[in-house]
Amino acid sequence: MRLLFLLVFLPVLLSGQRNFPADSVAGAAEEIFAIIKDRHPFAASMDGLKALEAARTQVQKEVMEAVGERDSITYPEFIKMMAPMQEVTGCGHLILEPHFDSLESRSIRENFLPLQMMLADDGRHVLMTGLRTTRDTFLPGTEVLAIEGEPVGPLMQSLSYFSGLNDQGNNRAGVMKIIRFPSTYYQWHYGLKKQLSLTLKNDAGEVSEEVILAKHKPFVDPKKVKTDISKTLTFRFSEDGQTGILDINKFSTYKFTNGNYFKFIRTVFDTLRQTNTQQLIIDIRDNGGGSSGRISALYRYLSDREFKFSSATISTGPARALPGERGKVARRRAAGAVTKKERRVQKALTRKIKPVKEELQFSGRVVVLVNELSFSASGIFARYVQGSGRGKLVGMPAGASAGITYGAKDDGKKIYVGPDDNFEIKVNTIGLVPEFPEPGNVTPDIAVPLTVSALRAGRDEQLERALEIVSGKK
Question: In this predicted model, what pLDDT tens digit does every residue of 409-453 receive, in sequence order?
């Protein structure tokens, strides 16, 4: 029965870009506005609500101008039109994306198009890894001009709206996510693809049309299946043996087949102490965040004072008093927590955390590597280190906010938009203010963009600079 369904379904899925009924656009826009207004902490204050209402007015105007007499609009067009309501919140956790049934979603996740790019310092989109096409093999650094005939720059931008990672308007971070992992995002909007045509340009300036074929890549949910700890955590020493390098891909609550996060971190600092290593690089590039407990557990080894995961916590719901509300409830609402559960969460996230015993603390030099994909709780950890003066940040401005992270857990309920549940909107319901807040995004002390020359030479420029700084050479 499933095979029959796939045979009937795949031609539809392969037919091209998805469309949304034009007469449903205005209603869907109002749904999105109401969801953000009622659930997102940004709208809790009067200023936030006014800003959201202004964004809604902008969206309404764009809808009237864009829809007109049309029968439908594409999914990317719809999401771009709604984007001002996300951008005004400054929240990269607020995401609007096409919704599929579980079978269709799994088909797209497992239909892997082997394309991974990066945006070089000169603005070119180049292959980040080698690529085999149906005719030839191309090395990292090869320029990508177009995908399916569409110029790659505008195409990647069109897929990045409302897709997350862009705290405080850092839209470059959202674009970088799409560029790095375009396979799933492209197929969400354009349907399942058995192959993809690319326009590539080599060093000699020769342009060629190439085709890559999709590969089946079974989807494994690390939240449900135990994985090797090395996929999340690794530790090594630099070539000269003077610097420890701790790489953390995710601060999440994954369960491992061969280890434990907390024991691993303890072993790292035991090793540094036993070897009298006084230089440490913590690499959280591409780290999308995760558990507050894991971040706090790591920082306990770096701090010599008590600290808080969050200096303030704001729960969802309006801060303004509602008609007939008692004074006590109004005061709690203004403090960002009305229910007992909200107050428990607020207390837990703002409690003081003690560092490890003095003899276990690491007192050497620390450098943290960040990039555009460092997000959410990773940004909070980076601000621990940078804001306290404990260490330096090296890399590129992160997608994470340095002022407030609208993250934490949502309530687990799926929220759909559109007459046929065409889209899913993800809204987190807690705002976290770090101990050392500042406007804008988490920004490195030393910016190091990626270059094509280093990519081709197999060099990690950001790590190289971090090693120079942690050693005191620069």
Answer: 655 678 999 999 999 999 988 899 999 999 999 999 999 999 999
Total residues belonging to the chain: 474
In single-letter form, the type of residue at position 222 comes to: P
Neighbours of 195 (CB within 10 A): 12
CATH of the domain at 296: 3.90.226.10
Q: How far is CA 411 from CA 290, 315, 455, in A?
A: 16, 12, 42
165: domain CATH number? 2.30.42.10
CA pair distance 386, 368, nearest whole angstrom: 9
User: Which two three-digit tokens encode residue 62?
Assistant: 């764009």
d(CA 224, CA 445): 38
Q: How is residue 232 written in tokens?
A: 């999340």
Domain that holds residue 191: 100-215
Reported as a single tens digit per residue, the pLDDT across 252-267 is 888 899 999 999 999 9
Task: Specify the DSSP element, H or E, that contains 254.
Answer: none
Residue 220 burial (CB count, 10 A):
10
Task: Name the domain count of the chain.
Answer: 2
Instruction: Give me the residue label for tokens 């095979």.
Output: 3
Structure tokens that stand for 209 in this block: 């049309």
CA angle at 63 for the pair 60 and 64, rounded to the nearest 5°: 90
β-bridge mates for residue 370, sequence order:
395
Mean pLDDT across 2-6: 36
Tokens linked to 401: 């906010």
The number of beta carbons lying within 10 Å of the beta carbon of residue 150 is 14
Q: Structure pTM?
A: 0.91
pLDDT digits over 277-305, tens only?
Answer: 999 999 999 999 999 999 999 999 999 99
Is the pLDDT assigned to residue 316 strictly greater than 90? no
Q: Tokens 């594409």 sit at which residue?
A: 74
Q: Among 106-115, 188-197, 279-288, 326-335, name the one with the lowest average pLDDT.
A: 326-335
Checking if the pLDDT of 186 tops 80, the result is yes
Q: How many CA atoms lie within 13 A of 275 on its CB side?
A: 16
